[in-house]
Structure formats: C-alpha cells, structure tokens
Design brief:
The complex is a heterodimer of chains A (601) and B (379). With 601 residues, chain A is an alpha+beta fold. Chain A is built from 13 helices and 32 strands. Chain A folds into five domains: 179 residues, Rossmann fold (3-Layer(aba) Sandwich); 85 residues, Elongation Factor Tu (Ef-tu), domain 3 (Beta Barrel); 71 residues, Alpha-Beta Plaits (2-Layer Sandwich), CATH 3.30.70.870; 107 residues, Alpha-Beta Plaits, CATH 3.30.70.240; 113 residues, Alpha-Beta Plaits. In chain B, the strands form three sheets. A nine-stranded mixed beta sheet of chain B has the order 7-8-6-5-4-3-2-1-9, with helices on both faces. Chain B has a three-stranded antiparallel beta sheet with strand order 10-11-12, with no helix packed on it. Classes of the chains: A alpha+beta (601), B alpha/beta (379).
C-alpha cells in the first residue's frame, strides 16, 4: 500500500468535560505509543494548570502506530483546546486533519460547544466520527444521545461507538473506525512545498517551533523556507514527529504531521494559520483560513510590590515566548504605579496567564477589572481605540462610543428559556432566534455586548439554569452604545485602577454594587473611609468603611510570646497583599472584585 | 531581675474556650510534681547557650524577685505540694526580699485552709479566675463556679491577702456593659487591687469553636466588645486603676511585677509542662504532653535574631506602659523614626514621645496589632 494511504490525520472535538483528553490518553495507551507506566493521566495536557482545570489549551500532536488487517497505519492525533477563547486555534488544527472524532457525553448529550465544534469540523470538510462516551455511568442514555446527534448536529450516528474512555471500554472499535472511516490525506509529495502551521511553541534550545501539516511536497533539514503571510524566511534546522515526545526525522512528506525548527528566535515570527513554502520554489497561493489573532479582553497587571515591575516584565516576556496571542504594553496607573496593559483571547486565557504569573514566577500580582476594546469617536472626528477606562476622554469630547458584540448561542432544556432570555435582556442582548432542537433542547441566539459577557455572564447563566445551559460565542463586530465611565473615589481620591466603562442605564446599579462590594473587601482602617462611585463629578453611590476599633487582644499567657508573634506574622502576611492608595489600604483582590459583582444579589 | 514561672497543668474540668496546656487526670499529679522539682533541681545556667545578637548586659540568673504559679488550676494543689515546689525554687535560686509570689486560684477549689496555707508559705498575691459574675455566662463557658462562689472566694482572698487580682472576660454571650461595670464596682469595693480583662478568643479545636460555628451570633460582635472594653477602661481609670497594659489594670503599686517582665524583655525561667522561658535573647518552651516532658522536657529553643529582638521590643513595649526605647532599637540597627508610618502616627497622636521612649496612646490599645505591624522594620 502506498505510504500516504496509511496515514490518518484526525482530531478529537467535544464540549468541555465530555472526555476528550481521557480518550486521547487511551488511544496512546492502546497503540502502545507509551507504556502504561509512563502514562500520566491526560498526558496531552502537559501544563500543570491545564491538568488542574481539566482543560486543554496547548495542542500537542501525537503519532501513533496501529496495526490493522496486516498493515501498519500511522495515526496522527491533533488535540484541540475546548474553549471558546481558542476557536481560531481549533479551526487551524481542524484544517490539518481529514477526520474528527466528535465525543458526546452519554448522559449530557449535545451541548453548545459540541455543536460549535462539529460545525467547525464540517466547515473544514472533515469526516466526522461520533463517539458516545461515559457509557459506564448509570445515567447514560446512548440511544437517545445518538438520535440527538442525528437531529441536532445532522450527521449519522447509528454506528457511533459507545465507549468509556475512563474504563477503557470499546477503544479498539474507535481505532478501527479511525482507519476505516477517515480518509487518508491527499497530496503530492513530489509537488511544491505547501505546509500549514497549526500551532507553535517555544523550546529553550531550538527556538520557536512550528507544528505543521504538510499538504504537498517535502521539507527537510537545510531547506530554505518562507512564511507566506509574514514573508519571513528561515533555514530548516530540524524536522521531526511526536511519539509523543519530539523525535527528529529525515524529512516530512505530503500527508505528514510533525514539527519544524529553523533557528526562529521569536514566537511572534510564526503565525498560526500561515502557510510555509519553499523559498526557491514557492507556490503561488497560500492555504485559506488565515486570520491574525486579536486579543479581545484586556486588563492591567501590576505587582503588589511596586519594586517588582522588572520581574513582572521578565515573566510576561517568558510567557509570550510560548504564547504569541498574549499581548502587553507598559501602563502607568496613579494608584498602582508601573505595570502592563495585557490583551487576551478571552477570560479563561486571562485567568491562565495570571495564575501562571503567580505560580510559576512567584509574583504577587494585582489585576484590574477586565475590559474590552472600545472605539471612541470624538467630536473632532478623531477615532481612538482604548481598553483602559481611565484613558477615556472627557464626556464633552466624545461624540459616541462603539463596543464589540458577539453572536452567542445558548443551549438549554426548554424550561430555562424564560430565565435565559431574561438574563440576555438584562445584559443588553438583542434576540436573534430560538430553535427547538428536540423536546429536551432549545438553542437561543442573541447578539450580546462582549463587555457584558465578561462581567459574570457565564456564572449567572449557569446558576439560572442549574448548570444545564452551555454557551458558545463568536465575535460579531462593533455596535454603537451609550456608555459612561464610572469612577471610584476612596477617601475622596479617585482610584484610576477601579474605573469601569458601563452602559448608562446600568451605571447606578453597578456603582452601587461596586461600592457595596468594596465596603466588604476593604478592611477597617484606623480612620473612616468613604467609598464613592461617580460619573464625572456627580456622586451616584456612597458607602463608608467605619474605623477599626479592635484587633486581637490575646493573653500573653505564662510568657508564651510565640503565640503572640504568630498572630503578628499572620497580620504581616495580610499586609503584604495590601496596596496603599492615598491614605487607604486596599487588598489586591479588590481590583478584580469588580468582575464578580452579582447583579442579582 | 529574673522571674520564675511554675506551670500546674491540672483542672477539674476544662473550660470550653481554653486552648492552654491543662489536663483533667489528677492521678498524674504526684508524678508530675516530682518531675517538676527535678527540673528545677537540674537547672544550670552554665549549660545555657549564648545569643550573640543579645546586646543587654546579662545578669546573675539565680537572683529572682518574682515567682508565678500558674495553670491549669494551681489551687487544686494542697499546701504540701506548693511548699515542696517553693522549697525547690528557694534551694536553687536566691529569692530576694520583697519578692512577688503569685498563685492562680479558681473560686471553686479555694478554701480557707488553702488561703491560710499559701500565706504561711510566703505567697503574697492571689490571682482569681472569676471571668464573670453572671451565672448564665459562667455556665456557658463551662466554669465550675457560680457568682456566689466567685464572690465568696474574693471575700476570702481579700480577708487574708492585700494583693488580690481578678480575671474577667469580655465578649461573653449577652454581656451588657452596664452590668459588667456594676460587677467590677462590686469587686473593687471588696478590696481587689488588680483586674485583668481579656477578650474571649475563639481558639481552634476548642468546644467553643464548635458552638460558635453552629450559632455564629451567640457572641457579641467586635463593636460591642470594644464598647465594653472602652467603657471598662474609662471606669477603671476613674476608680484609680491604672492601665499598665492593654488588658491589665492595677491600683498604684499593685501592677503584676512578674507579668511586667514578659513585656519588658526581662528574663523569666519557666518550669513544667509547656512552660516558656526567655533568657538573654533565647526563648525556650517545654514539651506539652506528659510523656515527652518526662523524657526530654524541652521542646524547642529559639535564638532570636536581631529582627526578632526588634519586633518583640516593639510588640511588647507598645502593648504596655513600658513603651519603646529608641536607643535600644538603634543599637540593634533599627531607626524607628525612619519608618514610613512613624511621622503619621506622631502627627495623629497615635504615638507619643516621653524621655526618648515612645508610647502607644492608650486610646489605640485596641488596635495595637495593626499599629505594631506598621512600625516594624519591613512594615
């Protein structure tokens, strides 16, 4: 059999928690790619944080060898992240495959991201193999779920393997079907080089590494290659495959999935979705689907100890090496001093980065409330773009403001439609349509401001639907909106890091919620601290933290000073997390707390 | 001058808020007293380590002028045991004339016979664990006495002793400020010369912790406690009880000389289960269970660093009328006037200066921890 006929390139897509990484682990184990003792649960999610959150962010392709009917097949599994923050990355990974396994939880059935991911796969012309997972659970209802897949996703599911990735049930059937159902790649290994970069990472010794799928031609060490969108040219220093750890090989041919190194210093020289071709014998047209990745959520990051600005800068630069989508630029806050304005693909991305800064770099950081990118049309005709509320011009200079909106799809059982629509209205949503997928499931579409989505939307959605609703969204341009800036004054002094941009109709409610929340967070001090929310010079809400009167008057019993000192140590620890704004001490979490305002309470 | 602390870790019943070292198996008493006396006999100042960070002049450790018998419930001991203990101390140490010798007593175990006995042995100060004069409150914290027993024990102690102290708790359920002050008035009229008012702490692992978990509002909140504390302070001062430490009030000349040593950085040598010592810049603590105490005695030793010496001086000095000695801190390398908060504290009259010493304005005693932390070197 011809070499290329024995290759299967595929990925696994699923709604979060439906068992993608567990199935990947089982496939690797079953094909003997890794001995069981070397398996770490959910091997592909290599970062500690990802394992903890149970989500995959970084894609790690793995080559597995599988013997079937006397032939040895090469199965390349390209794992994909399962979160809406990373939709573009997912789409590029799918573009590198011919097939996609669509995992659906046997109890939960089709969810928002099941559908979103399935559509992405269909858009990329992939063969889809539905797999029903978690059949070991007593609540499993595989037959119903199969019907749901056929009705909702619109693909045949009659022969979908029913498996338990956790218990290793029916994994062989999945492997067989990968070989039988998925087409082998098409491509001409003697043609001109055409490769897709579907991901990249940074290696301390080899520099930036491209993860590639070769469509036509071949690439080997010594070749001069060109990135078609960035126009950058590199000499190939290494090519190889992942088994699942990187292993150099002689060359990569049409149909292959692997990696390529070329003394590329910066990860930003590589753009996911770009096409690689041979410099001296290039193709004319790049692969379709390339997009420049743009951050959509922004926040300020500062160190609790202002003197650690340099360390923060180093840490961000190091993270950037492995995450080209992270953006940052210096920012100065009157309240928080020197820091960075950082841009992220979404809230999860933001959370991951801030946690890594704290954990891996041991930094105590303060993050300001997340914000989106606004387009401010000034009265003089100028249009400025900003994400930092404190840089908003004076109201008299503003003609109007535009904010980004998303098209959101929400899946839920029909009984929750009322509360979902209520929530979407509260969040300034514009109703688009509602579809009954079957008697148990409804899909609602809304256009929502992104700024509302990042304020607690997902949590409210979950709590109002007892966790049954799932959400997917994509960016849908900019819309004009009546927005104002709400400032927070502590002891009469404006704290720029606490300013927010909100819709005019919500300014009062949010100002009040914010002052109430801050009252709870800011500890009592020696003197009374008034907290005010204001639009311009008009105060819209006020709370007061009364003066502290008592801390611990423990008995120094029998000369046991150590007890007393421990108390003091505790207090000192607490003080470290405090930031002094004017004469007021604020715990660092106050700045993020703006995010967690629950409008319901 | 040095002080001696003797720990008697026995109680008839453990109070539900107590996290101190105390046990109810009285059968252990005789063996324990024997070990305690052995420990005193074995004391040898030559065997002690030196702390090079310690900059004060070290003294003759055998000269002592206070003995404090604390617990637990020392009044559970009969006169013979107390006599043996005091004899052991006197054999080893040079007890100065006019020394202060205190014994802690609980109202229910104090008898006239014991009081007379203590007096004969040279004990000259009695500290009574009254805690409250309200029966419901006493019951709540699991004390074995009621208010009438409390009053008769005070009467008894005052009949034989000039220097009687009473401990009270602030922060008990349905405590009312006026009633509390009336109770204090009553005991003052009976001749008590020293009053300690501690705030009830909910310590980890105590039965009280469980109670509070189930009934979070059973105890008065911070504001109510502070209210009582401040009114109490005012009342006591009006009645010539001078506040010489956050929680301690005494008529002139009746301050606890032993307790002042704790706050003044003077040496004290503790004997017995979980007893603490501080000797020339080193802190020691004994094991807190019987087996380990019998076998090894000491549980830890901590040679204080310069930073710790500075911290302790500020922490203990500001809590009391002793104040902070700026020259001493300077010798340890800390220039307190350069602390970033110092000027603000002076300006706002939170701290005041007298004869090159700094004192905390008693108005701010309640929030001393907060201020202490801000005055520390790295604050």
């Amino acid at each position: 059999m011809e070499r290329i006929k024995k290759i299967r390139n595929f990925c696994i897509v699923a709604h979060i928690d439906h068992g993608k990484s567990t199935l990947a682990d089982r496939l690797i184990e079953k094909t003997g790619t890794l001995a069981k003792r070397d398996m770490q649960d959910q091997l592909l999610d290599s970062m500690e944080l990802e394992r903890e959150k149970g989500i995959t962010i970084k894609l790690t392709p793995t080559r597995m060898l599988y013997d079937f009917e006397g032939e040895r097949y090469e199965l390349n599994l390209i794992d994909t992240p399962g979160h809406v923050d990373f939709t573009y990355e997912v789409s590029r990974s799918l573009a590198a495959c011919e097939g996609a396994i669509l995992i659906v939880d046997a109890s939960q059935g089709v969810e928002a991201q099941t559908l979103a991911n399935a559509y992405l796969a269909i858009d990329n012309n992939l063969e889809i193999l539905p797999v029903i997972n978690k059949i070991d659970l007593p609540s499993a209802r595989p037959e119903e779920v199969k019907k749901e897949i056929e009705d909702v996703v619109g693909i045949p599911a009659e022969h979908a393997p029913c498996i338990s990735a956790k218990d290793g049930i029916n994994i062989d059937q999945v492997l067989e079907m990968i070989v039988k159902e998925f087409p082998s790649p098409k491509g001409d290994e003697n043609g001109k080089l055409k490769c897709l970069i579907f991901d990249s990472y940074y290696d301390n010794f080899k520099g930036a590494i491209c993860l590639i799928r070769v469509f036509d031609g071949k690439v080997k060490v010594g070749d001069k290659i060109k990135m078609m969108h960035t126009g950058k040219v590199f000499d190939v220093t290494e090519v190889g495959v992942f088994v699942p750890f990187s292993k150099p090989c002689e060359q990569l041919l049409a149909g292959d999935v692997g990696y390529l190194a070329g003394s590329i210093k910066n990860l930003s020289d590589i753009e996911v979705g770009d096409t690689i071709t041979n410099f001296s014998d290039p193709i004319d047209e790049a692969l379709p689907g390339y997009k420049k990745v743009q951050p959509v959520v922004f926040c300020g990051i500062f160190t609790v100890d202002g003197a650690k600005y340099g360390e923060l800068k180093d840490a961000l630069e190091k993270l950037k090496l492995n995450d080209a989508s992270l953006e940052f630029q210096p920012e100065v806050s009157q309240a928080l001093g020197y820091g960075f304005r950082c841009g992220f693909l979404g809230l999860l991305h933001l959370e991951i980065i801030t946690e890594r800064l704290e954990r891996e770099f041991n930094l105590d950081i303060i993050t300001t409330a997340p914000s989106v990118f606004y387009k401010v049309h000034k009265t003089n005709g100028e249009v400025i773009e900003l994400s930092n509320p404190s840089s908003l011009p004076a109201p008299t200079e503003i003609a109007f403001i535009e904010e980004p909106v998303v098209k959101a799809g929400i899946f839920a059982p029909p009984q929750y439609v009322g509360s979902i629509m209520e929530l979407c209205q509260e969040k300034r949503g514009i109703y688009k349509d509602l579809t009954y997928l079957d008697e148990n499931r409804v899909r609602v579409h809304y256009i929502l401001p992104l700024g509302e989505i990042i304020y607690d939307f997902f949590d409210s959605l979950k709590s109002r639907t007892k966790g049954y609703a799932s959400l997917d969204y994509e960016m849908a341009g900019y819309e004009r909106s009546d927005l104002v800036k709400v400032d927070i004054l502590l002891n009469g002094e404006k704290c720029d890091a606490l300013s927010i941009i909100v819709h005019k109709d919500k300014a009062y409610a949010r100002g009040r919620a914010l002052t109430e929340k801050l009252k709870k967070i800011i500890p009592r001090q020696l003197f009374e601290v008034p907290i005010q929310a204001a639009i311009g010079s008009k105060v819209i809400a006020r709370e007061t933290v009364s003066a502290m009167r008592k801390d611990v008057l423990a008995k120094c019993y029998g000369g046991d000073i150590t007890r007393k000192r421990k108390l003091l140590e505790k207090q000192k620890e607490g003080k470290k997390r405090m930031r002094k704004i004017g004469s007021v001490e604020i715990p660092s979490e106050a700045f993020m707390s703006i995010l967690k305002l629950d409008d319901d309470n | 001058m040095n002080g001696i602390y003797l720990h008697i870790p026995f109680c008839e019943r453990k109070c539900n808020y107590c996290a101190f070292s105390s046990f109810c198996n009285l059968s252990e008493k005789d063996r324990y007293i024997k070990h305690l006396i052995d420990e005193i006999d074995e004391f040898d100042s030559k065997k002690l380590q030196k702390n090079e960070n310690f900059i004060k002049k070290s003294e003759n450790l055998y000269k002592i002028d206070t003995i404090y018998i604390g617990g637990g419930t020392p009044s559970l001991l009969d006169g013979n045991d107390v006599e043996k203990l005091l004899q052991a101390v006197k054999n080893k140490f040079e007890l100065q004339k006019e020394s202060e010798i205190t014994i802690e007593c609980n109202p229910n175990s104090l008898t006239e016979e014991k009081v007379v006995g203590y007096k004969k042995l040279g004990i000259n100060r009695i500290s009574l664990g009254i805690q409250s004069l309200q029966d419901d409150q006493l019951k709540f914290i699991g004390r074995l006495h009621d208010s009438s027993q409390a009053l008769s024990s005070i009467e008894l102690a005052c009949r034989y002793f000039d220097n009687v102290s009473c401990d009270f708790l602030i922060g008990l359920p349905s405590q009312e400020c006026d009633k509390f002050i009336q109770d204090l008035e009553k005991i003052i009229s009976m001749g008590v010369k020293h009053i300690s008012t501690y705030m009830l702490q909910v310590e980890e692992g105590t039965p009280l912790e469980k109670i509070v978990k189930n009934k979070p509002f059973i105890l008065p909140d911070d504001d109510e406690c502070v209210e009582i504390y401040q009114k109490t302070t005012e009342f006591l001062q009006k009645n010539n009880f001078f506040q010489y430490e956050i929680s301690n009030f005494a008529k002139n000349g009746y301050e606890s000389r032993h307790n002042l040593k704790y706050w003044n950085g003077e040496n004290y040598i503790g004997f017995g289960l979980s007893a603490h010592s501080y000797i020339d810049g080193i802190r020691y603590a004994n094991a807190s269970d019987f087996d380990r105490y019998y076998k090894k005695r000491q549980q830890f030793k901590e040679v204080l660093t310069k930073e710790q010496l500075i911290e302790e001086h500020i922490m203990l000095g500001l809590r009391s009328k002793i104040g902070i000695d700026r020259n001493y801190l300077e010798k340890l390398g800390y220039f307190i006037e350069k602390n970033e908060n110092f000027d603000e504290f002076i300006e706002k009259k939170i701290i005041f200066i007298k004869d090159k010493r700094f004192y905390l304005n008693p108005k701010y005693y309640g929030v001393s921890n907060y201020i202490i932390v801000k005055l520390l070197q790295n604050g």
